Structure formats: structure tokens, C-alpha cells
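Practice problem: predict the structure.
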Amino acid sequence: MRFPRSREDLAALGYLAGWKVVGKLPERPVLWAAKKAADRFSADGRGPAQLRRNLARVTGLAPEDVPDALVKASMRSYLRYWVEAFRLPAIAGPELAQRIEGMIRGRDLLEESAAAGDGIILLVTHSGNWDMAGMWAARRFGGFTTVAERLRPEELYDAFVEFRESLGFEILPLTGGEPPMAGLRAKLESGGVIALVGERDFGGRGAEVDFFGEKTVMPIGAAQLARDTGAALHVAGLWFDGDEWGLKVHPRIPAEGREIADIVQDSAALMESDIAAHPADWHMLQPLWTADKEERRRRKAREAGES
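Answer:
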């Protein structure tokens, strides 16, 4: 990697060092250090402000009334994800996959969809450890395909791709390559499995939904693929369960002949129930709801006018 010249370069250097170092260290001291770092970053639960605003929607409280303990637990959960991600290439294997399989609720629903042979779409949120679940899915179904945001700098994106390919993922870039929908469609039409993150719209062409009582926009790709290909669309909830992991597969969402917006709203309702059940394990530190995005745009416009 070139000499770091920006915050992006420094962040990339940190992630790359994490993969090289954390996987070689004992698990318990690393998790202890991650908890301490999370507590420091969250100021013992007083921040970050956007995480607090997001959790306010989930809990139905005013931001200032969200318990510091919940914000603190959420940051600890987020840092735990990164520790496990850095360690996963070293610990992935049949034994870990078998442990995860024993924790999956609703696995029979996936098996039924797999037996039908029409392809499977797994729709998840930024919760728990989806790489761990993906490792299991790749082993159970002989690989699966997903889409990755093209991170900057390029070295960081390449590292994420290499990491996930080592677990059996096929990665399609969201930008900077062929549009991913064609590749996803081909995978499903061959009876394969794809996994997509469902609650945050990156492309700006999503459908407006009601989510925890407020408006936001969610991506339509999973709904469109399910309707057009006949693939089975399943929302899957992810969380941490003590030292283990939780994964719940919801029943197939009907898609044939339906409006895309209605399919997305049904998906949103299931994702909402999963997040509400395990709010500390939802790792959403960015503005998600329309009101917050508009406020951020207004703030940036004011700052630009003052400069």
C-alpha cells in the first residue's frame, strides 16, 4: 500500500493491519480490548449522536432518553463484529459452520426453498455478524453471491473482496464494474443463492417505506429479483447470543404479480421486528430515515454558505 496521505488511507491501513494481527492473537484479550475501545468511542454510551437518533426510532424514545447502556452495548456489538471479521479467515471451517447451523431458526424454510430449485434471496440488515452467517451459507449451498460497496481507497475494497472470497462468497461491485443486477439474476436463474443488505439504499432509486413509524427509502433489488425470477425471498435476522450467534429465517415473502413497493414494505416489516428484538446488535451509525438525511443536507448547505 502507498504511504498514507489521507484519512481514507489511514483507515485502510488500520483495517489491513487488523486482518494481519488480530487473527493471530488470543480471542479473549482482543475482545476485552475491543470492549474498552467501544466504551471510549461511545463516551460510555453518550454517543455517537446518529446512533442514538437511530436507536430512538427503534425504542420509541426521544434521543436524549435512549439509555446510555443501550448505546454502549451497540458500540460493543459493532466492535465485536470487527474483531470476529478480522479473526474469521483463521477460524472458518466445518466445525464453526456446524456450530452456526445448530443455532439457525427456520432452517427448514431455507431447505424447502432450496429443494424447489428456483434460487434463494437472503435479505439481511446491518446486524450481528453476517459474514459468519455467509460462511455457513457458502458451505451449505456451494457458495453464494452478494454485492459490495466499492470502498476507498481501492486497497481497502480489494482487502474486503479477498476476505469474503476466502469464505466462499462471490462479490459483485456495486459501482465501478458491470451493473450487478444481471449477475444476480443469472445466479438465481441457475438455482443459486444471493444475499443482500436490505435496509439502506445506496443507489438512490429505492422505494419509500414506513420503518419504525417514519419514512425512509429501501433498495428494491431483492424485491425486483424475486418477482422477476421466481426466486424465494427470505428475510433473515442476525444477532449475537452471548458468545454465540443468532440467525432467524422468516417465511418466504410472496412476490409473484405484486407491486415492488408492497414487497419492499413487507420486507421492511420483518426487518423491523428483528431489529426491535435485538436493538443493540443493529450497527447503523449513518443517517437512515428521510428526516435525518434532509437535516444533514440542510446542515451541509448552511456550512457551505458560511465558508
